[in-house]
Amino acid sequence: MDSPSHSPRVSTTSVPLVLAVDGHSWSYWAFVWLGLGSLLPFNFFITADPYFRYKLHDSKTPNSSASRLELSYENAVTLSVSVPNLIATILVTFVCVPYIHKYRIYSSLSGIAICLLICFAFIFVNVNQWREIFFIVTMGLVMIQGVLCAILLNCFFSLASTLPSRYIQGFVAGQALGGVFVVLCSIASILFSNDISVSAAIYFLLALFVIASNLLTYIYVEKSHLLQIYSSSIQEVNNEHEPLLRSSILDDNAIDSLNITALALRQRLFVAYKHTKWNFFGIFLTFVCTLSLFPAYMSKIQPAYPSIDYPHTLWTDRLYTQVMTFLLFNVGDTLGRMISAKIQIPSILRSRLLFFICLLRFIFIPLFGLCHFPNTNGFPYVFKNDFIYASIVLLFSLSHGYCNSLNMMYAPRRVHAQLSSTVGALMLMALTFGIFVGSLLSYGVVALYGDAQEPDNIQFQ
Fold this sequence. Notes:
Elements: H1 15-24, H2 26-38, H3 40-47, H4 49-56, H5 68-71, H6 73-94, H7 102-122, H8 131-161, H9 165-192, H10 196-223, H11 225-246, H12 252-257, H13 260-293, H14 314-342, H15 351-360, H16 364-369, H17 386-413, H18 420-449
């Protein structure tokens, strides 16, 4: 079942040409850029947290007080993304064949661009009198983008899983780089202007640029020799695979009672799950742990200064969370995914050990609980140094990127080439389930430590 790390998922007659294309690295970097753009909408809505809090702030209350809408923003975004994302992933995986389709990609990217344009237009609208409506519309746009991103990721993971493993590693590394890109854009916009609205305008224009460039990048990939080889080979795989399933362990009664196409798809998923279950649950636990803390809990952690009377500065007001939480997390996540391309410990033969490493990451929940979180439940504030917090964030993000990337790389190699595309869709389902459960758990983590008030260092323009 196992195959070498760089063995292509194509017919043997196409191997020399795939390796020749692979050697030039252009297609690899195209997948990195596609990965960067695939999670861009979610990253932008999360990292643009100061702008949305500014729009949702009730001007009738003091600056140090935050409204109910502000306090619930991060949790609402993660849930608004994860729920429709989960539903769309299940539908695309179980109802539609989980293979690449160019029209799904074009329509998804175009829809995401339209949603970002609407968000850009809201920058110039005064929403003080209808903040609740603005909140609902924003969450609606987040939900639409969640569905479109699910379709987009299903296509890209299915495609990358059928190619040499360096492509799926490049794609997941690109997703982490997307987080770094978004945070750097946010920091640059903050430094460029003190006006939150101007910063947000720059922010969303950069997002639109990336989505447009993703569309052009996929047009390049679609016309490349690599995808032409993939397209012919996957047709060969599909033609071979369905009769294989019809003659499998399914009995005649089952075949008579259910649709053949549905049976074939379900059987592919069952066989894929059977051989990759440890990787499936490893990805699931990795994202449950990460989303339970990031961003809803970690974005509220304050600077570890000895006095609450420390004067407001650009650093404490607007840059601390962007740098110490978002930037450090995304940098560590990117490094973890890049390290997995060179160091693969534990090996593909020790998938259970990798699963237990993913499980061990839950120790970060009590560790972050000892940082400077504005809690009201009496938990101790132990780590009174920002370097300690930064170190925990880096370890947390490195382990996330490394575990996620290893599981994504190993899973397609544990099955026959005919099932590699199905495995890609299955791993995406694990990721989506993990985001959904982690988003729900984040409410419990925040409530556990007692977030009854907004950090005092938040100041609105």
